[in-house]
Amino acid sequence: MAHSTSRSVVVIGAGASGLAAASTLTQADHDVVVLEARERIGGRLLSAPATPEGSLDLGATWFWDDERHVRALLADSELGSFPQHTTGDAVYQDASGVQRLAGNPIDARANRFTTSAASLTDVLASLPSGTLRLGTPVTAIRTTPSGISVRTPDSVIEAEHVVLAVPPSLALDRIDFGGQLAADLVRVAEQTPVWMGAVVKVVAEYPEAFWRRDGLAGAAFSRTGPLQEIHDMSGPDGQPAALFGFAHPSTARNGGSDFRAAVTGHLTQLFGPQAAQPLALHVQDWSAEQWTSPAQVAQLGDYSLFGHRLYQRPALDGRLHWASTETARSYAGHIDGALVGGERAAQAILHALPDPNEEPAPAEPSLSA
Which residues pair with 206 in a beta bridge? Predict the structure, then answer.
């Protein structure tokens, strides 16, 4: 029998948007629970340990100068950042061979996180004890006469508000809303792409950033190899040294056990023989992540749906709030967009719920005899 509890707010998803919303709400002393289907926090902010130390981003990697929510979080948490390495020439490959492009026209100015992108969600996860529940997927959401009901495999939580901090198309694929969502909202949510949801990210780690010594930026674009786009992912001062690239999921899956060999062979074509022996090769297929991407993720390509007007207002009688990066009006698809979405949801709830620290008004004196 499902265990029943009640909370003021249920946040679904412990990525950047969900944890940002939960952080704001708990700081205002509201009773919040964060339900995360995975056994880890971070969502699409994921890092792997490097050799012998440091970390490598397998999900989000960059942020940009004008993204003020990321910058504010870095300042508040005293986390460091550094500029993306862009110095040197780039490489272009097509059927005719490999060409060197002077001046690196591939990379744009961007910033990286000194520790890792996942360090942002580590900071945001500093929540009151009992707030965060891992390994807890949400299976159904319903409105009730007094609020909104959230069901997990072993519990039912009655809440006043819900923050939906997962990609909209994933939410529609995994959660039963009982036909309560408006038809136009369902159509938009089902067709909204998942940021990074249809890519495989490959990170190759090396003892040193040898390509820099050869005057290369580590940036490449290929029309023939398994990796379509490649960038330098080395840490500050070039350590840990790494290159990362994106591959199409079908390329990775059709390649089977030969995919890794094809990747190192491709990197060798682009950057020379030292690329043939990486210390480690990390392959992160985001399309295969059941708590990131719905089954039809490869068919979702209308990015004009990011930040759609229907995501800007709460659904289900004003109690269901959209918060993932796909729903943000600004910087949708970026880490900053996730923080924007989480803050928007939190502020809407703060304006709807009474202040838990406010003293109730005294009762009016009775005029009866």
Answer: 241
pTM: 0.94
Residue 361 pLDDT more than 80? no
Angle between helices 335-352 and 68-77 (to 10 degrees): 80
On average, the pLDDT of the chain sits at 95
Say if residue 133's pLDDT is above 70: yes
Domain of 89, CATH number, reads 3.90.660.10
What is the Cα–Cα distance from 277 to 40, expressed in whole angstroms?
A: 31
Q: Quote the number of domains for the chain.
A: 2
Burial status of residue 79 (CB atoms within 10 A of its CB: 0-12, 13-18, 19 or more): middle
362 falls within a domain: no
Residues 169 and 275 in one domain: no
Phi-psi region of 238 (alpha: psi -120 to 50; beta: other; left: phi over 0): left
**pLDDT tens-digit map of 232-242:** 999 999 999 99
Alpha-carbon span 141 to 143, nearest angstrom? 7
Which residues span the domain enclosing 103? 48-64+82-115+198-288
